[in-house]
Fold this sequence. Notes:
The complex is a heterodimer.
Chain A: E1 9-12, H1 16-28, E2 34-37, H2 40-49, E3 54-57, H3 66-75, E4 84-88, H4 93-102, E5 106-109, H5 114-127
Parallel strand pairs in A: 1-2, 1-3, 3-4, 4-5
Chain B: H1 10-20, H2 26-40, H3 46-71, H4 75-116, H5 119-136, H6 138-166, H7 203-211
Helix pairs in contact in B: 2-3, 4-5, 4-6
Amino acid sequence: MPIDKSMNVLIVDDYKTMLRIIRNLLKQIEFNNVDEAGDGSETLAKLRSGNFGLVISDWNMVPMTGLQLLQEVRADARLKATPFIMITAESKTENVIAAKQAGVSNYIVKPFNAETLREKIEKVLGNA
Amino acid sequence: MLDTMPTTPLTTRLAEIRARYPASAPEMVAEVVRSVLTSMRGDLVSGEVSLLSEVEALGRTIASAKAEIAALRVDDITASHIPFATDELDAIVAHTASATHAILASCETLDAVSAATSGAMAAKLTDATTRIYEACSFQDITGQRITKVVTTLKTIEAKVANIIAAFGERTDPLAATLPAASSGATEASLLNGPQLPTAAMDQSDIDRLLASFD
């Protein structure tokens, strides 16, 4: 099934440099409708008021972590089916297991490249 | 009477005394030991002399350790060295963030040029800027690594302050600033930042692990 690259993608990171990098990498792989959020509560507000086909979030954020954000999304009846990719430097087995148990759609470890980003998005949206 | 002294080991008795009088300074203990020895030496049998010599040596060791620590000027570690190191590390993060933003801005300009051209030249430009974007994520990784180093330095700072406090110096104990011990499988124990390359799982390891759930 072809991927709809015109969908709205919400990227979440409390670190502006990473938001800028991910936005540009998404642009390189032809996802141009990208919005940003700097923390969990801003993310939830945007998700509840908007129409996003994909969330790409960092894990290590405060006060709400990416894992807690994922749990909030999965607990919300309207948002729970939204594909959610975690991008993080946390690469321990227990992190991947915790994310999977919370309902993550895919998991990208930093540092990553555009090809990995494209491949994981296609896999997640292909399964959506 | 000395012949009724308990036979429990010296270290145990000292620990009991320390527990009973937690506020007593080490030099106080040393002074008491010296006073006892001065007043009692003449009445002691050889075993007791040996025991009290051991205690006296212990007192000297404490006094000597205290003098050595004072000579090291450990106050400088908490007052100057560690704050300096953490400030320097913070400055590294700030400078690399600033440089990364400058690089990203230039890349975005190149992307605009690429969009205005076409063919092989545009593709080459896009490929080059993509590699630069990917490489710029170093800044996030190094930032997280530096944060881990700063946390370690602050832990050392707190422990040094506690040592100074234990030896009766003026520095206040910083026990409250020590990181809390990990409490089982809380999420805090999952936040470790980037692993060293020798210990880290790479993307293919993570893909295999995720696939094992399917």
